[in-house]
Every structure is written in structure tokens, then in C-alpha cells.
């Protein structure tokens, strides 16, 4: 259950990062809605697997690490919004 929650967190951060790039408003709204749904589902996975007392604590820690991982991967890959984009 924890592994599923972690994958959902990574997917949610990726969806939020993609939703920030320019595009149609309906597409960005759908991506943000999907990200919120993934975050809620991931919290439920952590609470079911670890418990009500420690589940949200571990979920918050993985939430921070997931944000860092997605930001680093997008920067290394040179995705939209990276600092190197303007130099190419």
C-alpha cells in the first residue's frame, strides 16, 4: 500500500508540474484535478497501511521528497520551465 501511495504522490507532482506549462485552460484544470485526486488517494493509502497516527506524518515526508524528485528530474531532462531553456 505504501508503494502505491508513493507512486501516486510522484504522479500527482508530475501532473501539477505539467499543468503549469502553457496550454488550454481546460487541459490544465483537468491535470490539476487529477493531481488532487492522486494526492487524496495517496493519503488514504498511507493511512490504511501505517495508521491514522503515523500515516499522515510519513505521507508528508514522502510528499516533500516526491516534490524534490520531480523538480530534479524535470530540470535534468530540460523540461519546460527549466533555467537552461533560454540558453538553447
Concise account of the structure shown:
The protein is mainly α.
Tertiary shape = flat
Number of strands: 0
- What fraction strand? under 5%
Major sheet description: none
Order of helices and strands: HHH
The helix fraction, in percent, is over 70%
Total domain modules: 1
How widely separated are the two ends? 42 Å
Structure description:
The protein has 88 residues and is an all-alpha fold. It has one domain (1-83). The protein is 76% helix and 0% strand. It is built from 3 helices and no strands. Helix 1 crosses helix 3 (55-77). The radius of gyration is 15 Å and the shape is flat.
Layout of SSEs?
Blueprint: H1 2-19, H2 25-50, H3 55-77
Helix pairs in contact: 1-2, 1-3, 2-3
Keywords: Membrane, Transmembrane, Transmembrane helix
Entry keywords:
single chain; 88 residues; mainly alpha; 3 helices; 0% strand; flat; membrane; transmembrane helix; transmembrane
Amino acid at each position: 500500500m505504501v508503494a502505491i501511495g508513493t507512486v501516486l504522490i510522484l504522479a500527482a507532482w508530475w501532473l501539477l508540474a505539467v499543468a503549469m506549462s502553457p496550454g488550454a485552460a481546460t487541459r490544465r484544470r483537468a491535470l490539476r484535478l487529477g493531481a488532487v485526486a492522486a494526492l487524496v488517494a495517496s493519503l488514504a493509502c498511507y493511512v490504511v497501511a501505517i495508521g491514522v497516527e503515523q500515516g499522515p506524518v510519513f505521507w508528508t515526508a514522502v510528499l516533500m521528497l516526491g516534490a524534490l524528485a520531480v523538480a530534479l528530474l524535470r530540470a535534468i531532462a530540460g523540461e519546460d520551465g527549466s533555467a537552461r531553456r533560454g540558453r538553447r
